[in-house]
Design goal:
Layout lengths: L1 H6 L4 H31 L6 H50 L2 H7 L1 H17 L1 H24 L1 H48 L1 H5 L2 H54 L7 H45 L16 E11 L6 E11 L3 E6 L5 H8 L7 E6 L2 E2 L5 H5 L2 E4 L17 H10 L8 E2 L2 E2 L6 H14 L4 E5 L7 H17 L3 E5 L11 E6 L2 E2 L2
Parallel strand pairs: 3-10, 3-11, 6-9, 9-10
Antiparallel strand pairs: 1-2, 1-4, 4-5, 7-8, 11-12
Helix pairs in contact: 2-3, 2-6, 3-5, 3-6, 3-10, 5-10, 6-7, 6-10, 7-9, 7-10, 9-10
Amino acid sequence: MNLLALFERSDRARIGRFLRYSALAGLSSTYCFFLVMKAAESAGGDQDPGDGFMSVLQFLLALLVFSIAQLQALSMSMPIVEHAVHDLRTRLLVGLQRLELRDAEQLGLARLNAALASDAQTISQAAGPMAFALQSMMMVVFAIFYLAYISPTALFLTVVVSTATGWVYLKHSRLVSSALDSARNRVQQMQVYVTAMVAGFRELKMSEEKARGAREDAVSSSMEAGLDKLVAQQALSRDYVLSNLAFFALVGTIVFLVPLLREEFSESVSASVAAVMFLITPLFGVIGALPQVAIANVAAGNLLTIEREVTAAGGETVQQWAEPSGDFDQIHLCDARFRYGSGADAFTVGPLTLSLRKGEVLFITGDNGSGKSTLLKLLAGLYRPSEGDLLIDGKPVWPHRTHAFRSMIAGVFADFYLFDRLHGIDATDAAWVSKWLERLELTDKVRIVDGRFSTLSLSTGQRKRLALFAALAERRPILILDEWAADQDPAFRRHFYVDLLPMIRSEGRTVVAITHDETYFHLADRRIHMSTGRIQA
């Protein structure tokens, strides 16, 4: 069971205390029932007042123990679940950051978001039902012992009926798990479609056909998810009805049939039926909690599957993070190739041979799909060459110098993400901050308060300027830009090439920029052109 695999790495001492309290709650509740049955049998007869008083004291004590134990067990269940979920989330986040970029891209952002948010929340919400189900199982165990004490025949019938019912449930559980897993995947796909509708809102407003298609994709996924959940719920409903039917059949057998076959059983019919009634209550509690437990089990399975995939991907070699250093003379990409896909659908960029000298400004040009961004990622140490080498001053970057190498580079990619704060950056140099916000014409748009940007509600061009500011604030010796100027107005684009690039260079930076702005090609020290995955000039 996936949930057991999730919890086995949790705080075992805390789990042990939870189990002990649950067992104590089950034992004390059974003892309360035993005292009630004992008092009912002696009611109306001659009973020593002292014995009656002792029974009352024992009942009250058992009731107190039951209340305290159950409260303790339930209060401990949430921390156990949250601790297990937090540990798994932490392992996933650490593992994710150890992945290479290509592995993270193949894992899928939507899937990872669903796992860390939706699946983890599903498990957290099931903490109460899971704790109640476990306590109910403890009560069932002790009730079985009591039933064996009263009537082995009633116990035998109860075990037979419960086993048959459990077998049917387990048979249906595969269908339930499969349907719930399918529903979860449908919902995840629907979230992708909804995200696309929001991100592409302008485009959809301009085309009724496109809007209809996008909406139908989302609605279709929602409908299919609902149908999958309906299949699972119908199977669980049948199991619930079957368990009720089995219970009444068991009681009817004990009351009507068994006394006809065994006369000596007649004397214990009432006690047996009462014991079965007591047994059935927690048993129904377990059955009632099963739907949520089943959903949580599917969610746990997905989280564990992603963890295994992240672990299997391997990720980067453990290295010491290095402080940014400007001490390099040359970065050399030597006969490097990078392969996308495999088989007939494979596409290879390269072979690429390129040297980048300290302090130069290098422009990379080429048509869309020519391999420019791949070359940039190879130069930045984000993609590991499928063949060939990336060298810094003659020493290979992969696999043992990647951290130190990447710590020399800051950049703004075409699909950049703008964080709302300057993570790991000292922004206390007020003069530098003011100077560059003014140069980027952002002084009246955004401020930095406690290391955070006062707003991110800016135009696309302004957001790119703020991303450039964040990259410059890292004070790293190499700056890479992927079509950075594409979203700037003509006046600011000229300002960037003519004024800002020399300023950036004067601070000791090496600049590598992908650009289509032919007007400013002459401002670079060198320009290379990419075509069909190779450097042409």
